[in-house]
Every structure is written in structure tokens, then in C-alpha cells.
Amino acid sequence: MKDRTGAGAGGGSSHGVMDGSDIMELVENEKVFTNFVDHKFQELDTDCDGKLSVQDLHPAVKDIGAALGLPAQPQSDHIYSEVLSEFRHGKQEEISKTEFKEVLSDFLIGMAAGLKRDPVVILRIDGEDLLEFVTGPKFEKEIIPMYSDIINESPQGSLKEHLVKAFEKLTVDHGMPPATDPWVMANILEPALETAGVCHDSQPSLEKFLSEFRTSAENVVQLLKEQPAIVAHSRNIFDGSGVRRLLANEFELNKSLDYAAKIVPRDLNGMISMEYLRTALDSLAAAGFPSVGAADKMDRIMGDALKMCDAGNEKRVSELEFKKILTQILGSIVLQLEGSPVSVSVNSVVHEQLSPASTLLQQQSSP
């Protein structure tokens, strides 16, 4: 498994890592950035009235990210949503080109900050690491427990179904691109299983499973050699430090709580239902924990913290009380993460050629 430059994923080569530095280079180059703004504003201002609605910006955000080399979801989704919500706050319905430049600068700086915090590594998976795993001493040690889990999860499943689930449990660390990706399934996994002659037989024995999995994995290796998969990869350890920093910074905490309280519905008396605590909490994920659904362990931690505060019922509280409860929940999350950090790895196949921001800089600086 190699990054786009051919260096190993752990080799430390910065050319295969998107950390926001190229984006900051664009924003800090006044001449180039002004040209970029002029071009993008003209492209978005379809009715040529010299104004853009904030809504017009939303569909353009991912196009801008793609032009700067930011891969598609899921790695970048939290970056987009975080920055969009930030620059929308306090803006009027329409903005001029001057205001657009300010907004776009804020957006790109926020995007760069997101990538600096959560760098995205571009990996070239060519079967080399997977072959090493399949032929190495760790193979049976890891696959046997995997087999037991799969049998427990789906006792009536067929051999093919069990093999697919096993491949889905492999990660880029094993040298396997995400098997749930449609491209990987259609171009790598399905052909590998077909070549191995895997059928829909009933539940296999452990010996049969290991044999068929090894054969199928060797076929996957060959297919990856012929057609490597390019994967955008990020890994983060959430240990509570980010949340603790937020709790220690009164200004930032109040700002975050104000936003969290603003996005949830209120009744005619301005009261907020406790059932919206989870929604508000998810809006604070940038503080240092993954969004709901990103990690089962984190979901359990958040669920426990919410239960402690009796969240989910229809009791209505004032905004002040709502923020106080959110703060208590954050404190509970800190304690649990400090005792048991959560690791989250996100991988998605890149289906289009990515253009680094340096290329965009060259384009915008040309006459």
C-alpha cells in the first residue's frame, strides 16, 4: 500500500497528505486569490445581477473543494458542513462580490484548518500489503475470530455472504480498499469470488472458510495489481483533549453553545425540548469527537452521557438550562474518552483524478 507518490503510507511523505497548506497558500496570495474569486463569482452569478444568495454557495462548496484537491465524502463532509454553518451565521440573504471574497476566504481558511486537524492521506492500494497479510503469520490469528463473529451475526448465511462480510472487515492496514464501495465490489471483490468459484453454499466449516478466503484474497491481490485502488484515508484518535480545551475556553464554549441552541426548534415560549439534545450535541462534534454514526463505541459513550441527563424525553427547558445540560454532557464525554480513547478510521475510494491546490495556483496566476 503506497501513497500517490509511491512512498509507504507510514513513510511521512507530505506529497501524499492533504493538510491544508496548499489551500492557505492560495488564500494568502492576494493576486491569485482575487483572480480565483472573480472567476468563481462570475460562474455562480448566473443571472448576472452582481449578487449571490447564500443558498447559491452551498452546491458550489464541494466543487471548490474538488478544485483544491479535497476528496469527496465522507472525509470532507464534516469540513464542508462545519465551515458552511460558520460563514452563514450573521450573513444577509444576498452578498456582493466583496462580501463573497470575505466569505470564501473564511471558508477556505476553515477548510484548511479542518485538514490540518484531520489530514487526508491518499493511498495507492496495489495488493502488496494484502498479499503480505494473507501469506503471513497474522492471517489465521485475525481471520478465525472474524469467522466466529460473522457466524454469530449471520448463522444462516452462505459461504459467499460470509466471505463478503470478512472482506468488509478488512481495512487499509491489511491492504484492502473498502469492500463496501460499489467500485471495489464490482471491479475487485465480485470478480475475485467468481474466479475462486465461490458459490452460495450453506454455512461453511472453519477449514472451508479459511481455504476459500485465502484463495479469494489471492485473487483480490492479482486484481489490485492490475487495477490499483486509490483511497482517501484518515485516522483520528479521540481522547477527550479537544473537548477539554473547549470547556476551558469560555468564549469558544459560549459561541459553540449559542450555535447548538440556535439550530434546534423552539416552542412559542422559546423553550427547547430535551429530545433535541442529541442534535445539538452532534453540532458540537468539531470540538473533538466524531459525529453520530461514525463509531459504534463513540455512539455508546454519547448515548450513556445523554441518558445520564435524561435526554430524549419531551420535557421543555429554557435556552440557559439547555446549554447547561449540554455542558454537563460534554464533561461526561471527556471523562469517558480520557479513560478509553476512540479511534476512527475513514476510507473512501477516489474515482476521479485529484488536482492539488498548487495546480490551481498555477492556473489562476497565468494570464
Shape summary: globular
Q: How much of the sequence is in beta strands? A: 5-15%
Instruction: Work out the helicity level.
Output: 55-70%
The tally of beta strands, per DSSP, is: 9
Major beta sheet, specifics? 5 strands, antiparallel
The H/E string reads EEHHEHHEHEHHHHHEHHEHHEHEH
Mean pLDDT: 78
Question: How many domains, in number, for the residues?
Answer: 3
In whole angstroms, how far apart are the ends? 40 Å
**SS summary, helix count:** 16
Radius of gyration: 24 Å
Structural classification: alpha+beta
Low-pLDDT runs of 5+ residues are 1-15, 353-365
Q: Your description of this structure?
A:
The chain has 367 residues and is an alpha+beta fold. The chain folds into three domains: 2-123 and 347-365, no CATH class; 127-227; 240-340. The chain contains 16 helices and nine strands. Strands 1, 2, 5, 6 and 9 form a five-stranded antiparallel sheet that branches. α12 packs across α13 and α14 (296-308) packs across α15 (319-339).
